[in-house]
Each structure stands twice: as structure tokens, then as C-alpha cells.
């Protein structure tokens, strides 16, 4: 770290805390889990530095769905993938399980004081303002936008393929996908064209590209300990320190935030000008302006009302949506990248999907439509199964961090046996208990998703009885933990599902994807989102090179 005094101060605090900890025992001491490898870091390096999910899967296999592990400075963590406990923490408890101050600071650094940072009433208020923009009909209305962004990329690829002697080209998938999906987000949320697909060097795109990897990839020991110490520092002091912290990772986040701020300001100006001219009223932001006009006001706002609403009341909301969109964009483009990765490893699945797309296209053409409709997509069962399986198998966010604000009793799907031999059907946890909710381990639950849960198999969603309900269903989609659940569930999940379908239809309809020699060296790197890197070439950033050729247009 760059500021030695900063660190010395933090370490001193840490030692004081350690001394305090040693004198205290709790029920958490009785829960089984991996032995700590070091007092400084505990088992966190195993969790954060291994390939995505692998450590958790082995712990889940060995210790079950509630695992006690040591975090930095000998602090306790519960790693939880038990369905009932997750349901309780995320859906039943409301704001009682919240973000600890260190996690809040990470949210603030990445996304400002928006929805990800806010808690309690202020979170509730922001969420209520935004929900109308993210309903099912709005998501469905955006299908043509998603198709047009996907086909813009397809046209560029076609040009490149046509120009090549053998009509084939190797594309670095994450790079292209993230540009096309940035454009999709811009148009869906703000009716704004970033022009990323056409132009390599969008300032914002460049800044965000690879941000996860640069900032959160392979955290060093110093970073892990510093994060742990964040929570002993009063939030305002911490904010001040981080605004001046010369550490390159933090500096990079600040740099990205500055660029985002600049773009956001330009967009607000653009939006208010457009609304004044009576244009561009179908995007999420315009919908929100209308939806939040209040009941007593006529649905037809005057221009002035609209403008003042936009400039005053909604500017913070607006920025929050902007940030959510960017986070959504990064997670979405990672998910689509992993989907394509699976399709080249399963050529049979790829051609089955293409056959389903061809059949649907035929029906659409006979209707006189040039594009598939939402109804068409809903009728494509293999496509829908593949999207679900990708979200299950490749959740881009592996962990949700929560801390309980009160003493609580966690209900459990499966009783746990303590090290003293007691069987607990529920687990009493003291106030301040820190939990790491494991999305990846829950999504691999064999009782729910089948004995082959560790295999990528979309057909599980099509076979009756392959998938069991876990009692209450978790999360907004397909009983998966991928979009989180409850009041903090991902607000844009419907957009993600429809956008994935649109991109896959467009890409598979036009192209065939196949392996390159690097495919066996692809590593699932944890950097808040799980991104692909090539083993031994981490310095090159996100990489998934795939060979692309034209798909035959006739029958498969
Ligand atoms: C807003 O941005 C769009 C591009 O998405 C552009 O065509 C339009 O002219 C801009 N409007 C204003 C008022 O700047
Ligand atoms: C999976 O889910 C079932 C049903 O909710 C639960 O009883 C079980 O403990 C979970 N864990 C595993 C590893 O199957």
C-alpha cells in the first residue's frame, strides 16, 4: 500500500480488535469449517483467489450448507448456501440483514450513493421510485432495441468475415459483447446511443472495460486486510481517506467514476432537452419521470413540471439508474460471454438451438414479420432452458455479503451437527454476525437441481421432475439465487433474460462458433463479476477468443 501511516494505524486498530475477540466465545465457534491458514487472512484467499466457486463447492461437499470460516484478523464468517437460511436472510428479514460498512464503502466507490449503497428507508424510497421503469411490459417493449443492437454487431462481424479469405475470423468475445451491450443499455435506459459497437474507443467503454479485473481481480494480502479494517473507520472518515487514497486500484475506481459522472451530466442535459422537445419518451428514464409525477397531477405533465422533476427530484435517481445500468451491463456481458463459451463446448446444443431458431424464424416469416416477437421467444423452450442453465451454472456474482443488525435465529433446510455433537434444526446467531451468501453453491444444490448439478445441462429444465422446488422459491427467476432475492433482488432481471434471448437468437442465426486452442486454458477469474481470462495471460485482461464463421441459412 502506498500510505504506510494509514496502514500502521489500521493495523494497530486491528490488533486491538484481535485482543478483544480472543476473550469472547460464541456459538459460531461450534460450527464446522476449514481450518484457518493464517491469523492475518484466515481462509479468505482460498475463497477469493481460486477459480470461481471451486473452493465453495469443495467446502459444501465436505461441511454442508453452513460453513464457518475465518476471515482476516481471526474474525468469523458464515458461508451459507442452505435454501431456507438464504430465503430467511434475503426475503423474510427485510433490512435486518444489511450491508456492513466495509461492503457499503465498496458499493459507494463503485456506484456512488445509489441503490447499491443505500439501506433501510432511503433504499426503499429509491427502489419505489425506480420499480415502474422495470416492469414486465417495459422489458418486453425493449425487445426490438435489443435485437437492433445485436444485429448491428452482427453486421460488423459479417463485414469482417466477408473480407477474410477463408470467411472466418477469431473474435475476442468479451470485448465485442461488452460494446454491443453497452449500446443496448444506453438505448434501453436513456434512449442514448453510446456508439460503442461502431467505435472502439468510447471513453466510458474504455474506462469500464476491464475495471472489475483491474480493481478487484486477484486482491493482494494488503487489500484483503485493508478491506477488513474498513469497518472500524467511521464512514465519513473512510470516504475522505478513499477520496485521497493513491492506491492504484482505488485511484482507478475514482477515475472511472469521474468519467461516468461526466457522461451522466451530458445525458441529463440531453434528456431534458429531448423531453422539452417532446421526443424520446419510451426509455426507462422518461417512463420514470411520468410514473413519479404523483396521482394528483394530471398524467400530462407540463414541460416545466417535467423539467423540474427531472432536474431536481430525479437527478439522484437518475444517476443511480445510470450506475445500475453500468453494473447490469458488466454482469450481462459476462453472462452472455459464458453462454457462448458453453455453446462451443457443446456443439450439439449449439446446432439444436439454431434449429429451434430457424423453426421460429420460419413461422415469423410466414406471418410476414422480419423479427421474432416476445411470443415467439416464449415458445422457444430450449432457448429458455439454455438461458436458465447459464444463469444457474455461471452466476457472474458469486457472493452476497450480509451482516445481521440484531440477534437472529436462522431456519435451516437441513439440520447441522455442531463440533460438540449437538444437532441444530435452527441456528441462533448473535448481532453482528457476518455472512457470505454463496450464490454459486446454492445454484449447485443437488436436491433441487439434480444429481448432475455440477454439469452444464440445459435439458434439466425440460425434463419433468428433474428440478425440485425447495419449499419456498428463491429469487425472482427460476428458483435461482443469481439475481439475489427480496428487496435487494436485481431490479433489471427481466431485461437481462430478454436481452440474453435476443442476442443469442441474432448471433446463432447468423454465425457458427467454434473452439480455438485457448479454450482449454480459459480460467473463471473472480473479480466481483466472474470473467474469463486465459491461463498464463492474465495481463491481457478479459479473453475468450472464439472462431466465428457464417451459419448456413437453410435447414440444419
Ligand atoms: C441526444 O443524444 C442523441 C444521441 O443518442 C442525439 O441524437 C441527440 O441529438 C441528442 N440531443 C441533444 C438535445 O443533445
Ligand atoms: C439442497 O436443498 C435441499 C432442499 O431445500 C436441502 O434440504 C439441502 O440441505 C440442500 N443442500 C444440499 C447439499 O443438497
UniProtKB/TrEMBL annotation:
A Pfam match: p450
Chief place where the protein resides: membrane
A single MF term (Gene Ontology): iron ion binding
Pathway(s) the chain acts in: Secondary metabolite biosynthesis; terpenoid biosynthesis
Residues holding heme: 490
Transmembrane residue ranges: 6-23, 318-341
GO cellular component, one term: membrane
Key word Ribosomal protein present: no
Subcellular location, record wording: Membrane
Gene3D superfamilies: Cytochrome P450
Heme keyword on record: yes
InterPro entries according to UniProt: Cyt_P450 (IPR001128), Cyt_P450_CS (IPR017972), Cyt_P450_E_grp-I (IPR002401), Cyt_P450_sf (IPR036396), Cytochrome_P450_monoxygenase (IPR050121)
Known cofactor(s): heme
Record keywords: Heme, Iron, Membrane, Metal-binding, Monooxygenase, Oxidoreductase, Transmembrane, Transmembrane helix
Superkingdom field: Eukaryota
PANTHER family reported for this sequence: CYTOCHROME P450, CYTOCHROME P450 12A4, MITOCHONDRIAL-RELATED
Entry's family note: Belongs to the cytochrome P450 family.
UniProt-recorded name of the protein: Cytochrome P450
Amino acid at each position: 500500500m502506498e500510505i504506510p501511516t494509514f496502514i500502521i494505524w489500521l493495523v494497530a486498530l486491528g490488533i486491538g480488535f484481535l485482543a478483544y475477540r480472543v476473550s469472547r466465545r460464541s456459538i459460531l465457534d461450534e460450527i464446522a469449517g476449514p481450518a484457518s491458514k493464517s491469523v492475518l487472512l484466515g481462509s479468505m484467499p482460498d475463497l477469493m483467489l481460486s477459480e470461481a466457486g471451486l473452493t465453495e463447492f469443495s467446502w459444501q461437499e465436505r461441511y454442508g450448507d453452513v460453513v464457518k470460516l475465518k476471515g482476516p484478523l481471526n474474525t468469523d464468517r458464515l458461508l451459507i448456501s442452505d435454501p431456507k437460511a438464504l430465503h430467511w436472510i434475503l426475503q423474510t428479514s427485510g433490512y435486518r440483514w444489511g450491508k456492513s460498512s466495509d461492503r457499503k464503502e465498496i458499493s459507494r466507490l463503485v456506484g456512488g450513493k445509489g441503490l447499491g449503497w443505500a439501506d433501510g428507508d432511503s433504499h426503499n424510497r429509491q427502489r419505489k421510485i425506480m420499480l415502474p421503469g422495470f416492469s414486465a411490459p417495459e422489458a418486453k417493449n425493449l425487445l426490438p432495441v435489443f435485437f437492433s443492437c445485436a444485429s448491428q454487431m452482427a453486421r460488423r462481424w459479417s463485414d469482417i468475415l466477408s473480407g477474410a479469405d477463408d470467411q472466418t475470423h477469431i473474435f475476442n468475445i468479451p470485448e465485442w459483447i461488452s460494446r454491443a451491450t453497452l449500446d443496448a443499455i444506453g438505448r434501453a435506459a436513456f434512449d442514448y446511443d453510446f456508439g460503442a459497437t461502431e467505435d472502439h474507443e468510447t471513453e466510458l467503454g474504455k474506462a469500464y472495460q476491464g475495471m472489475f479485473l483491474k480493481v478487484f481481480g486477484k486482491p493482494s494480502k494488503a487489500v484483503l486486510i485493508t478491506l477488513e479494517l474498513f469497518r472500524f473507520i467511521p464512514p465519513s472518515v473512510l470516504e475522505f481517506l478513499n477520496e485521497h487514497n493513491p492506491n492504484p486500484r482505488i485511484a482507478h475506481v475514482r477515475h472511472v467514476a469521474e468519467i461516468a459522472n461526466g457522461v451522466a451530466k451530458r445525458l441529463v442535459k440531453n434528456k431534458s432537452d429531448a423531453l422539452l422537445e417532446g421526443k424520446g419518451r419510451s426509455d426507462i428514464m422518461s417512463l420514470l419521470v411520468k410514473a413519479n409525477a404523483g396521482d394528483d397531477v394530471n398524467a400530462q405533465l407540463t414541460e416545466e413540471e417535467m423539467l423540474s422533476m427531472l432536474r431536481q427530484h430525479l437527478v439522484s435517481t437518475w444517476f443511480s439508474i445510470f450506475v445500475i445500468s453500468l453494473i447490469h451491463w458488466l454482469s450481462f456481458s459476462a453472462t452472455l460471454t459464458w453462454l457462448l463459451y458453453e455453446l462451443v463446448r457443446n456443439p450439439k446444443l449449439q446446432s439444436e438451438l439454431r434449429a429451434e431458431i430457424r423453426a421460429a424464424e420460419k413461422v415469423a416469416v410466414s406471418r410476414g414479420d422480419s423479427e421474432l416477437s416476445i411470443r415467439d421467444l416464449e415458445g422457444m423452450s430450449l432457448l429458455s432452458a439454455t438461458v436458465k442453465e447459464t444463469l444457474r451454472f455461471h452466476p457472474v456474482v458469486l457472493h452476497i455479503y450480509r451482516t445481521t443488525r440484531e440477534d437472529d435465529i436462522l431456519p435451516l433446510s437441513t439440520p447441522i451437527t455442531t463440533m460438540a455433537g449437538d444437532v441444530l434444526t435452527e441456528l441462533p446467531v448473535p448481532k453482528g454476525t457476518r455472512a457470505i451468501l454463496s450464490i454459486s453453491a446454492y445454484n449447485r444444490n443437488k436436491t433441487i437441481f439434480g444429481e448432475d448439478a455440477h454439469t452444464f445441462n440445459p435439458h434439466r429444465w425440460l425434463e419433468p421432475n428433474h428440478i425440485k422446488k425447495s419449499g419456498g422459491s428463491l429469487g425472482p427467476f427460476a428458483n435461482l439465487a443469481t439475481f439475489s432475492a427480496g428487496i435487494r433482488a436485481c431490479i433489471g432481471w427481466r431485461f437481462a433474460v430478454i436481452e440474453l434471448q435476443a442476442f443469442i437468437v441474432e448471433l446463432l442465426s447468423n454465425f457458427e462458433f467454434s473452439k480455438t486452442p485457448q479454450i482449454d486454458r480459459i480460467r473463471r477469474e473472480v473479480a466481483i463479476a466472474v470473467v474469463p481470462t486465459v491461463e498464463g495471460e492474465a495481463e491481457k485482461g478479459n479473453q475468450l477468443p472464439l472462431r466465428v464463421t457464417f451459419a448456413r441459412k437453410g435447414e440444419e
